[in-house]
User: Fold this.
Amino acid sequence: MTTQLASQAARPAFRPSDNVAQLKPSATIAVSQLAKALAAQGRDVIDLGAGEPDFPTPEFIVRAAKLALDKGATRYTATEGILPLRQAIADGANALYRGPGGPVLPADVVVSTGSKQSLFNACFVLFGAGDEVLVPTPSWTSYYEMLTLARATAVPVMGDPARGLKVTADELARAATPNTRGVMLNSPCNPTGSVYAADEMAAILALAEEREWWVISDEIYLRIAYGGGDEPCSALEAARSRDRLVVINGVAKAYAMTGWRIGWAVAPRAVASAMGALQSHTTSNAAAVSQHAALAALAQKDEAERAIEHMVARFAERRAAILHALRDAPEVRCVRPDGAFYLFVNVAETARGEADPGAVFARHLLERHDVAVVPGSAFLAPDWVRLSFAAPQEQVVEGVRRLVRAYRELT
Assistant:
């Protein structure tokens, strides 16, 4: 027995494979989990770290899911998704795209378990070792990790705060090397809420076409915009061709369906086929009942539009309340969000000399003021923090007031 115990004790500790050795946990999920843990201890925590709408899934979608279950939608589907859903997605794409190459067909669409899987699938089939992919920064934290998993190299291209941290085609061109193979776009952008105007999007797509780069356009926030600034533009609207374009979207944000886990890619036929083949060996099809729910969201347009307009109107009210609360704190600099539901705040002055001012500020804000936000280092912007206004308005406004107090305490 003693020999057996000694043998077990001598076994080497777990060492992750090279596939995941450099992978970092999701900072946004970590913040949400910490906020929930503190709330469970009795702390009055305002969680402004979450990246999901705080609205219920519209009832007509829930009813459609129940009906689908009653009709037996409990079995495997085609890996790439049920045909009616892929047809509805193709129809939506064709309403935007007017370029050459014929219409988008269901065979050009792959439905996945959330837009995150669609993004990963696209990165994995398009890029590999030695490839460099330009990532306008700050951007959603998972882009960098997905490219790492694909053995490609993410090349951050930092945007100018004077332009809402957006990048230009010229800046992307200057960052490119002979190894550049693609660019990842996101508009409206997480974490900044900035929106690329049609001419800005068109210039980037024209550059990519000229250089023969692949473009992955993440458009999950496309329907959440507020007017008064740049209007969101799908890459399908701005592209002269979709030969090297992969557009990602889903039902999570616009339809308040984060937990249903349905996203999709619209891609050139060969790319869609490769993505479907990859998915067939990883997760297979997305949940059947969720696909039928997503079909209702896309097909029942009148009900969907009413639900989206109601939700976006509530987000707009919160955004206006936040900006009003910040009028008396001109020292707190932020990106004015034209879309999504985030406010990106510069906190560099609160921790001069620190390598990661955003992390220092976020920790102080949570420990002293019970407000959870995401440090900007999660998005490769360490001077900033991101707060979400996908929370009740009174909590959002109170959270911003506490943020201002914390900012003034540290400056």
About this structure: The chain is about 40% helix and 15% strand.
